[in-house]
Predict the 3D structure of the following.
Amino acid sequence: MSITKIDGNLLAKSFTDAVNYLVMNKDEVNALNVFPVPDGDTGTNMSLTAKSSLKQINNLEDKSSISEVSKAIARGSLMGARGNSGVILSQYLRGFSEGLDGIEEASVSELANAFKIASETTYKAVMKPTEGTILTVGREMSEFASRNSRKYDDIVSFMEDFVEAGEISLSKTPEKLQVLKEAGVVDAGGKGLLVLITGILRSLKGENFSAIEDEQLTRKAQKDIYIGELADDDIEFGYCTEFVISTKNEDVDGLRNKIAPLGDCLLVVGGGGSGIIKVHVHTNNPGKVLEYAVELGALQDIKIDNMRLQHQEVLFKKEEVEKAKQKEIEDKKTEETQEKKKYSFIVVSLGKGINEVFKSLGADQIVEGGQTMNPSTEDLVKSVEKAPSDNVFIIPNNSNIILAANQAKDLCDKNVAVVETKSIAEGVTAILSFSEDLSIEENLENMTAAIEDVVSAEVTYAVRDTNMDGKQINKGDIIGLSGKKILAAGSDTNKVTEDLIDQLVNDETSMISIYWGHEIDKDKSEELYNSISEKYDDLDVDLIEGDQPLYYYLIALE
């Protein structure tokens, strides 16, 4: 049967199927990581980003308007965006929504216009767009749509050729980006976008894709549960209350001031002119909170959880309980001692030892994350809102988190600066370069300049055969990387690490810091330390227990 128009109900169904289809195929997208290292997460990030839209869709009472459904999709993806690919996807969906604004049902020409605006929005979101990426695939698909939309009345026929144009564009990404050609892969972000749109097409043709429980999401949910072995009476505010307001009056400050006396853990986030305010608060009077909120507009996605009942139902292992208790004590101490801080630091980090390093340097909050576990925009927004000052630095420590950090910055009312650190080493240097006496702008300039002098390197293992930088890498090899190059490879972890350091040390080097990871025992790390210290006896060499996953060693040279 021919489809000449898509309304909101059909978009809701086809997008839901498409998200499930993307989740099914996320491992295929993850495997396209340029480097053959065990941290390919593009498919996971795009799946989590898209999946965050489904709750917004499901909570719509009326799904008849394609404009309203597309707004729900954009809203959910914005707050759930993870990693660079997830942020770009959220911007693509935001542009798509803008292209459908005010439309009840869309024809081929209106869909083509929405895809055009979607592509344009992604390019605006990236400071230095790189061709041969998801940006290119989205643009070339939209160009096909703009050129040819008048030829089609049937949306399915149009989408079939639209997807084919995407496949052609994706296949050519290695011609536009040399690093893809060397690795023998197509662009992972472009593949993820194409999988999502292919899912929409297949749904329109009558296929159904059931929801699949995503193991990574499940682990994340379990990790985020925080209920200590405390009496119910110790939970001061018993109802976790969350909702979204659709409004023309985005009086975020006014609403926050009204709700603040009613509880704690308050988060009130405006959508930057989108007409959306998201609220989260722990309170004993959710009715009063909703009463204030409804003064601004219509409420949706209302969720009220009794945390005391949850507390009774969830049991932790003994060590987890102790950890939770200790965290609560530390958090209370932090609140007491940092109430009047001028500046705060939000640091993304992963690994017990590395977390302790950042805490010792003054980090107010550690957002757990890094490779394979990128925090969402919403995770970072919540951390900024909890920070004990109005001037906040976000230290992402990973190139794949920078876009989400900047997106979080735009959603916060506080004075936020993102120091675009791409490694743990750069994050440490950035904080060490901070001065309490300078303004946030001056500090950002100094911290950014300081990280340019840091050389970062990592040692991990190859997850597939590849030929890169003139080296034949076999699956299972130990590999040493710095920047975008594999500099060393072999079968012995310490030997590869030493070879890597030898190539990076120069006349300007004065210090070598080595963080040993979860898979390395102390004796082996000390063997490496002794060898490096002896070879470079004129340099300061530090050995630090990082306890980071996936990477045997993280190395910093300054």
Notes: The chain has four domains: 6-215, 230-313, 341-440, 455-557.
